[in-house]
Specification:
Length: 298
């Protein structure tokens, strides 16, 4: 007998390995290509994060792409053998064509395959995944799960900064306006992931940037964000040392009056590290009050 609903995520989402195993969540890799046009699945098999960072440090360039549509169709077909329905949580529509391709696949599996229109990635998508699991366990109707999952992004705020913008620039992941400011003042950017990358200011170093990120988050919630509104905080890092890790933990814990032991860390998904490179860090915060949202056109 088939189970009610299977959950599929792509490799742009962070996750806890034990959580994935417990809930039988399946992962489909995005792809990236090196400067010799060799294509890798983002599954940490042919090339893991340590190897990727080493090659990025050597100034090698990579490009990322959505999962080949044929592979996505095969995955859906395989999962259909065990599940009546499949819900799919992809990387943000502003970062990849993954969601658009999933809509093409959906035409062959109407009433069975349900993609979620994601407007974020990494830890933000992990927050959404956790809630999707609860809704699937309750056997909610699939259109309702999709609608509620998409609405969850209004309650999640994500900011990050990069020491090295070359990957973001070459991949078209930052606008000319951001690059103009960065190049003019030789500062580091603050970027909000809201559909696509949005300019959030600049700073000289990670200490200053962290404080500005906190100010931005409070502004996004109309300065009404209190400790009782914060559900979860996740910090992600790309090749950062223990000193910066400790500083970020202490700073964000104090700013939002949120217990340090409840804050978790995640390595950046490899496919995102391609663009952000070594030295990226950031925060995703999940709340029970909505933030100010921006209009985003596909």
């Amino acid at each position: 007998m088939k189970k009610y609903c299977g959950i599929l995520i792509d490799s742009g989402c962070t996750y806890d390995v034990n959580f994935i195993k417990k809930h039988n969540i399946e992962i489909i890799p995005l792809s990236f290509t090196d400067q010799n046009n060799k294509v890798y699945d983002d599954d940490n098999k042919e090339i893991d994060q340590a190897e990727l960072l080493k090659r990025l440090d050597a100034h090698e360039s990579f490009k990322t792409s959505a999962t080949p549509i044929g592979k996505l169709m095969i995955k859906v077909e395989q999962m259909s053998e065990n599940y009546e329905h499949i819900i799919f949580l992809p990387i943000s529509i502003g970062l990849s064509s993954q969601y658009a391709q999933s809509l093409i696949v959906q035409q062959d599996y109407l009433g069975k395959f349900f993609p979620i229109k994601s407007t974020s990635a990494a830890i933000a998508n992990e927050f959404v995944l956790n809630e999707v699991v609860k809704m699937v366990d309750e056997k909610m109707e699939l259109p309702s799960i999709v609608s509620r999952a998409q609405d969850l992004y209004k309650y999640i705020d994500t900011y990050f900064s990069c020491e090295d913008l070359n990957g973001m620039k070459s991949g078209g992941r930052v606008t000319n306006a951001i690059m103009k400011v960065i190049n003019l003042f030789k500062l580091k950017p603050i970027i909000q992931l809201d559909g696509k990358n949005q300019y959030g200011g600049v700073g000289k170093n990670y200490q200053v940037i962290s404080k500005k990120i906190i100010k931005n988050i409070n502004k996004d919630f109309q300065n009404e964000l209190k400790s009782e509104h914060v559900k979860s905080i996740g910090i992600y890092l790309g090749g950062y040392g223990e000193e910066k890790r400790s500083f970020l933990l202490e700073t964000f814990s104090n700013a939002f009056n949120f217990a340090k032991e409840k804050i978790f860390f995640r390595d950046l998904p490899t496919v995102i590290l391609v663009h952000t490179r070594r030295g990226c860090y950031g925060i995703s915060i999940q709340t029970n009050i909505p933030r100010e949202t921006k209009e985003y056109t596909d």
